[in-house]
Amino acid sequence: MSSGLLGTLLSGRYRLDARIGSGGMSTVYRAFDTTLEREVAIKLMNREIAAKPDQLERFRREARAVAQLSHPHVVGIIDAGEDSSRPYIVFEYVEGETLKQRIRRLGRLPIGEAVAYAIEIARALEAAHARHIVHRDVKPQNVLIDEEGSAKVTDFGIARMLDDEEEGLTADGRVLGTTDYVSPEQALGHPVTGQSDLYSLGIVLFEMLTGDVPYRGENQVAVAMKHVREPLPDVQVRRPEVSAALAAVVDSATDKELSHRYPDAAAMIADLEDALAIEAARAGQTTGEATTVLRTLPKRARRRVPLRLRSPGLFVAVAVLAGIVVALVALLGSQQAHRGTGTHRVAPTAPGLREDNLSQSAAHDYDPQGDHVEHHADVSNVLDGNPTTTWSTEQYQGDAFPPPKTGVGIYVDAAPGAVGKELGLTTPTPGFRAAVYGANGRVPANIGGWTKLAVSQQTTSHTTFKFAANTKSYRYFLVWITKLPPGKQQASISEISLSIPG
Questions:
Q1: For 151-185, how does the pLDDT look when each residue is reduced to its tens digit (9 = 90+)?
Q2: Domain locations in the chain?
């Protein structure tokens, strides 16, 4: 649709502010609800499609289907209506990125995070299937990751009720869906059930774990036929650290024989929950959404998880109590007490400034000129308040990066934004050179998209980058490493802090 619709007020209430997506059937806009004064997303049916009865029915079907769903991992429908004979649907507006964008940005996801997202998507599908609604187009493009890191399934555009007749919509044998994730039965035009959604979710999980879809072909039909005829590539060959339990989930979800595939979402969720517990126990830690989902696991699965991961508050309390006992014993046994240096501050805060309170999930690796992954699993260590844990670059030959790579980095997300004045870091590998940059909106695809806030300098064990002249709020603050420490093959950072006006 043309940009001429921007500014239009639908039904005297919804102002179209920006186009955020489009397809053959409809266009999606970010809009403003002038009645309730909030941002919403509006899917407006294209005018030429609105004249076609079957397409109009599909559009209305989506509204009816999603209106029945109220679930934390489903993008909710707020309203529906028509303006000048053009139907529209109003959804909650989700600020963030699609799961596909996340995979493209990061490559393969941390295993725990991939399983956590699969659990959230499966729980959304379970709710839909309970109402006899099949999504029919499960793919990472239709999963939104909000600012808190939670997954929300959207675009039930080709969903249908299981007990509906096929008349008009698919009776002609058309294959609805995206062939990268299409189930064998859907590719062949056979009846589609909830098991078809689970197959597609299994393919999404495969992509999250490996960074790529399992099949490539000259065209969509060739890819669809591979889903019908070719075995799925072994996920453990593409990513050896995947556990056997998790690999079995992928295999069961994507079995071409319906009788061997998961019978329903509940069965798949149970195995995914066990797999997440196993992966957390193997890794010894969790980050991001994996930590959030871990807290929701049933007791059956939580028993596999170490106490310090499933009950962090209790574990910390026990650890603190043990520390107090040890300290008292040491104090009584020695005539000279020694004061610790503390772990919360990286460097003294300048007068008039205070440290921004960043969560552990706010740290992200940044490798735009390489494979887009730079020890992603360790990024939370720079915000955990513990100087003995670190994030490191990968190992490189010599102290310079191989051309054309000019650097790698790690950034913190200070959402919704902050007027940063200083960034402090501690490192066990002093001597590397780094600069600090800021950005807003989407994370820039390359270093040229960032704004330099502090010039490059050689680091010491405790370094403060000052950008006091900055008066602009930025969401992202990047430490961009351009040269490794002399004689070392990697640089490490143990803690990062961001200071803002107090």
A1: 999 987 555 544 444 433 333 334 444 789 999 99
A2: 3-92, 96-302, 353-501
Q: Is 377 helix (H, G, I), strand (E, B) or coil?
A: helix
Q: Which CATH number fits domain 3-92: 3.40.50.1220, 3.30.200.20, 3.90.1150.10, 3.40.1010.20?
A: 3.30.200.20
pTM of the entire structure?
Answer: 0.60
Q: Give the CATH class of 96-302.
A: mainly alpha
Q: What is the DSSP letter of 159?
A: -
Q: 90, exposed or middle or buried, with CB in 10 Å at 0-12, 13-18, 19+? A: buried
Query: Is the pLDDT assigned to residue 14 strictly greater than 90?
Result: yes
The answer to whether 111 touches 279, Cβ cutoff 8 Å, is yes
Catalytic residues: 137
Q: Residue 285: what pLDDT?
A: 63
What is the predicted pLDDT for the residue at 326? 45
> How far apart are alpha carbons 22 and 396 in whole angstroms?
43
**214, 203 Cβ separation under 8 angstroms:** yes
- List the one residue out of 238, 233, 194, 197 whose CA is nearest residue 215: 233
Q: What is the CATH number of domain 353-501?
A: 2.60.120.260
Taking phi first (over 0 means left), then psi (-120 to 50 degrees means alpha), and beta for anything else, what does residue 378 get? alpha
Reported as a single tens digit per residue, the pLDDT across 266-283 is: 999 999 998 998 888 777
Quote the CA–CA distance of 89 and 110 in Å, as a whole number: 35
Q: How many residues does the chain have?
A: 502
Please give the Cα distance from 63 to 91 (Å, whole number): 10
Q: What kind and span of H or E run contains 307?
A: helix 307-310
Q: Is 341 strand, coil or helix? A: coil
Confidence band for 339, pLDDT divided at 50, 70 and 90: very low
Instruction: Tell me the three state secondary structure of residue 480.
Output: strand
pLDDT digits (tens, 9 = 90+) for 241-270: 998 889 999 999 999 999 999 999 999 999
C-beta separation of 153 from 99 below 8 A? no
- C-alpha dihedral sign at 115, 152, 28, 80: positive
> How many CB atoms neighbour CB 123 within 10 A?
22
